[in-house]
Amino acid sequence: MLEGFTDERVEVADGVVLRVRVGGEGPPVVLLHGHPRTHATWYRVAPLLVAAGSRVVLPDLRGYGASTAPAPRADHAQASKRAMAADVVALLRSLGHESFAVVGHDRGSYVALRCALDHPGAVARLTVVDGVPIGEALRRADARFAEAWWHWFFYARPDLPERAIDADVDAWYRLDGRARAQMGEAFDDVRAALHRPEVVRAMLEDYRAGLGVDRAHDDADRSAGRTVACPVQVLWSARDDLVDLYGDVLAVWRPWVSGALTGAPVESGHHVAEEAPEELARLLLEHLRG
C-alpha cells in the first residue's frame, strides 16, 4: 500500500505527534480522512494525484490511527477542529510548505474548513467531501437528522459510548468481510487503530468537541462574517444523504465562501475514496489545476 510514500512521525504541537505518509513531487495537497478511518483510506486516490504531479501528504489526524491521542479536557478542546487544523498547518510547514491545498472528507472536512478559516494565508485551495460546516448541520438538526445521524449525540455522551464500542469493536464498526472488500488494503490499518481503546476514546472526543467548542467556533465566525477567500470545491456522494438533508448543498456553503465556489456529486456511497477513487481523483485534479 502506498508504494513510494515515506512513513514518518512528525511532532506538530507539544506532545502531539502525527503519523504521516508523503509521496510525489509538485504542488502540495494534504488529504484528511474521516471517522473511523485513517490516512490509509486514501491509498487508491493518492497515487493518482502523485502521477498527475502533486506532492501528497497523508496524516492520521490527532486521536486517529497511529497519531497521538491527547488526554481529554473538560471542554474537549484538545479534540477541536481548531487544534487539528493547527496540527495540519504545522505539519506542512515542517515539510517546507507555507501554502498548500487541503482536501477533507467527513470529519476531515471540518478540519479542512477550519484550516482555511484560521490560516487563510496557508490554504491555497479547499475541497470538502460529504460535509457542511458543523454549525450549519446543528442549526438545521431536526428529527430526520437525529434519526439518521444519531451517533453524533450518542458519541457525545460521557463514558457509555466507550463501553459499548470497546465491548466488541469488530461488531460495532462492522469489520467483516464486506468491510474488508470495500476498504481493501486500508482494512488492516484501520482495524488495528480501532482496537486501541485510546483511539476509540479520542474519536469520541472528536464528536464531543463537535457539539461544543467546534460549534462555538463556527458560530463565532458566522457572526463575525468570516469567510473562505480561496477557491472552494464541494463534493458529495450521490448515494449518501447530504442532499436529502440539506437540499442545495452549495447554497448551504455559499455564505461561508467569498471566493469561487464549485461543486458536484460523485456516484458513490459515503466512503468515496474507497468506492470511486478514479472519479474522485479526476474531480480533485480539476480543482487543483484551477
UniProtKB/TrEMBL annotation:
Gene Ontology molecular function, alphabetical: hydrolase activity
AB hydrolase-1 domain: residues covered: 27-277
Superkingdom field: Bacteria
Record-linked InterPro entries: AB_hydrolase_1, AB_hydrolase_fold, AB_hydrolase_sf, Epox_hydrolase-like
Keywords: Hydrolase
Protein name: Alpha/beta hydrolase
Organism: Pseudokineococcus basanitobsidens
Lineage: Bacteria, Bacillati, Actinomycetota, Actinomycetes, Kineosporiales
